[in-house]
Amino acid sequence: MTSVRHQSGVSLLVVLLLLVMMTLLGLAVLRGSLLEERMSANMYDRSLAFQQAESALREAEATVRAAVQANGLGHVIGARCGDDPNSVGTITDANCVTPADAYTGGGTCASVTNLKQACWFTATDALGTANKSAGAPQYYVQFMGLRDSAQDLGLNQSASANQYGGSSGVIREAMYRIFARSHDASVNGDRSVVVLQGNVVVR
């Protein structure tokens, strides 16, 4: 006589539970991988932006020195933010702080025929679109005024300044402040924007 065995289905239930657990584990691993990929992409984009901003800063420094060499010491490029008795101009406070549009774009120079402007000059795009550039880097120049070596060293601040040479061998120099950014954020706002600042003293 053949006995009839009733199947309880426990094995099937265990297999289904293991399948669900493996699926959840796989989804967790996938989510972690996607997050790490996004973090890597953001770091890469920020690295590109930093390179662009630094290249604009170096180009701006060279441009300022070339402008001074060609036109003389003083206010020859950028917004006027300091005194220069040899150059007529007005100091506008709004042009002499960190540009309000440094991270938002706008204010690009219409042309470079007039260097004495309060706007963003477009620099050379060394990366280019082939290397995932977000756009050409830009720089903003502020003329901070003229000073001399006596002021720089503080030699004219004491009664014995003449004794220590504070009134002789004076060297005139012009100070400029430069802001450089990776690209115009109003054109490509979904990419990382890096803004750097530097000072240039030209004698």
Structure, explained:
- The protein has helices at 10-71, 149-153, and strands spanning 79-80, 121-122, 138-148, 172-181, 195-202.
- By secondary structure, it is α+β, with helices and mostly antiparallel strands.
- It has one domain (11-202).
- The longest helix is centred in the N-terminal third of the chain and has 62 residues, at 10-71.
- It starts with 9 loop residues before the first helix and ends with a strand.
User: How many strands?
Assistant: 5
Separation of the first and last Cα atoms: 114 Å
Please identify the structural class as seen in this structure: alpha+beta
| Average residue pLDDT | 85
Radius of gyration: 31 Å
Total of domains? 1
Number of helices: 2
N-to-C order of helices and strands: HEEEHEE
Q: Segments where pLDDT lies below 50 for 5+ residues?
A: none
Report the portion of residues in β strands: 15-25%
CA-based shape: rod-shaped
Instruction: Assign a percent range to the helix content.
Output: 25-40%
Main beta sheet, described?
5 strands, mixed
